[in-house]
Amino acid sequence: MSVAQTLPCTRQEMMAIATGREIRDGELAIFGVGLSMLAGYFAQAHHAPNVRAMTEGGIYGAEPVGGLPWGIECNRISSNATSFTSCLDALGCLVASGRCDVGIIGAAQVDRFGNVNTTGIWDGEDGHIGDSYRLPKTRLTGAGGANDIACGAKRYVIMLNHEPKRFVNKVSYVTSPGYLDGGDARDRHGFIGGGPAAIITTLGILRPDPVTREFRLDAWFPFSSVEEILGNTGWDLKVSPDAHVVPEPTPSELAALRRVDATGMLRRS
Amino acid sequence: MRNPIAGREYAMHFLLVPRRRLQQYSRNSFSITRELENMSRNKLISLSEAVRRYTWDGMQYASGAALPVGSDAIVFGRELLRQKRRNLHSIFHCNTQQLNLLAAAGATTHAECGFTGLEVFGFANGLRRAVESGDLALEDYSNLAMALRLLGGALRLPFVPATVNIGSDLQHRSAFAPDEYPAADKIPAVTDPFSGRTIGALRSLEPDLAAIHVTLADPAGNAIMLGTEWSRYELSRAAKRVVLIADAIVDDACIRQYPNLVRIPDIIVEAVVYWPFGAWPQGSPGMYDVDEEHMKAMNTALATVAGTEAYIDSFVEPYADIDTYLDLIGRDKVAALSQTSTGFLLDPYRQWIKPHAEVLSLIAESTLETAQ
């Protein structure tokens, strides 16, 4: 087991770099709003220069200018595009069709089968909504394009801060389907996409068991540990027999990330 | 409830008159011909008259089909509040500051959306407060589902088969039918007649009105959008009526130079509102950047009832016209936001942009503006 050590980067930067490492050169990739966009464009700036990047806003071939774009359509991502199309084109023709290789989405909550909740937080026991749909204690942002990516992308990566309240046994509301009840449950719906390949957090990386599809601890970061990850996960997290420490960011990775993250969004915590 | 579209049939009738017939009319009465030609080509209208004429309490109102930081007809929502419209059923592909404001002010009781945040600006506090209090019933879909529902409406199909949203709580939970679980009528399961696979049926949308923000329009209502069009193409065909809110008015020659880029043609447009910075504090690619400071201040204000009242007093009620609206934003800020890195996108069209004073004259002589 590792001993926690300090790195010359923040936990969020490590999360973004680990996520970016999932993107391979030449892939057709879709990036959600916010930090996941930084992770994706970091990959393009570093090791995947030929990634065919798009946002669900239908903005293709662009790179951020002036820092993290405020949205998937704003001026900071509209200054050097090769094509402006539409939602129907990006999320429909290129994602729901099964063409998209990889997506990156954020999450408010995720559960042991990689189901994502971005709709709301309900009070009561385990946050269970019950038979009647009742008002959430806290309304979140809704699905956006994440449900479409979760259904259609060949694989996708979920990126979020690692805290017990976010890592729950079963999400109150399945906004974007992971492996649902586990096993081959996705097959019931015939999803063209393969499901979540990894959950990458501020502490480490979780990957699904190939049979049960339950997420296991696959790797921890140089500054975290298995114990810290288990303590911040709200279910009985199993540890993969191959669990290992993630290599720390190289100077060139960090430099590329910080070029993309010009306004330092990932360095604020 | 007053008749929301007085005179519409009359106007539409003459839009359909062939040009040769117009020439025949002209032999009988020169003045009628001029009036007809004016009606068919000049659909400019003031913002206040557009809201008076095309909106009513309880209507199904669609805006945007834009993203939360992008090109949405926010100023149309401000005018809805100025004219005290209530009980709106809002169709917003994504939440924007417009829906955030309408929800905060209690003007909308129902909404259907794909995304309800403000992207990097966080949660939409006004909408959030309205949902958590139960004042707003919010029916959730995904972004692609909303685009497909608008496409279904555009084609007047009763439903659209979907391979997304199924198997999740987007299908199983309905805020409009909260006691049904799993919800039977929101995204019913249907069988693909060819493969036998079970998929979802998305209900098509045909909102009463779409207020659509565009970068450029000619006086007849041919529109060019810079940046992603998101779902404005589908919405413009789905809605029963379309009003454009344009940042700038261009000469007809611009439209004829770039007909491939005219994704919203005049034949489906009722009226054109000219309103620079109509998407403010959101951005309009080619025209102006997102106003970061106001995006945050507005969202902070909308988090409380008192803050919302103060916001309405300060940024919804005070202006009398376009000039005083731009004064309210601040002329220095208007100039700074116009220095956008996307400005080059506008370059091919600049030569055809009509001067402010000329557009105001065109609005004044438009029959939509003067006919009551």
Automatic annotation (TrEMBL), chain A:
UniProt-recorded Gene Ontology molecular function terms: CoA-transferase activity
Pfam families reported in the protein's UniProt record: CoA_trans
Superkingdom of the organism of origin: Bacteria
SUPFAM superfamilies listed in its UniProt record: NagB/RpiA/CoA transferase-like
UniProt keyword annotations, A-Z: Transferase
InterPro entries hit by this protein: CoA_trans_fam_I (IPR004165), NagB/RpiA_transferase-like (IPR037171)
Protein name: Glutaconate CoA-transferase subunit B
Source species: Aromatoleum tolulyticum
Lineage: Bacteria, Pseudomonadati, Pseudomonadota, Betaproteobacteria, Rhodocyclales
Automatic annotation (TrEMBL), chain B:
Keyword vocabulary terms for this entry: Transferase
Pfam families, alphabetized: CoA_trans (PF01144)
One GO MF term: CoA-transferase activity
SMART domains xrefs: CoA_trans (SM00882)
Family annotation (InterPro entries): CoA_trans_fam_I, NagB/RpiA_transferase-like
Transferase in keyword set: yes
The keyword Transferase appears for this protein: yes
Alphabetized Gene3D superfamilies for the sequence: 3.30.30.40, Glutaconate Coenzyme A-transferase (3.40.1080.10)
Protein name from the UniProt record: Glutaconate CoA-transferase subunit A
Taxonomic source organism: Aromatoleum tolulyticum
Lineage of producing organism: Bacteria, Pseudomonadati, Pseudomonadota, Betaproteobacteria, Rhodocyclales
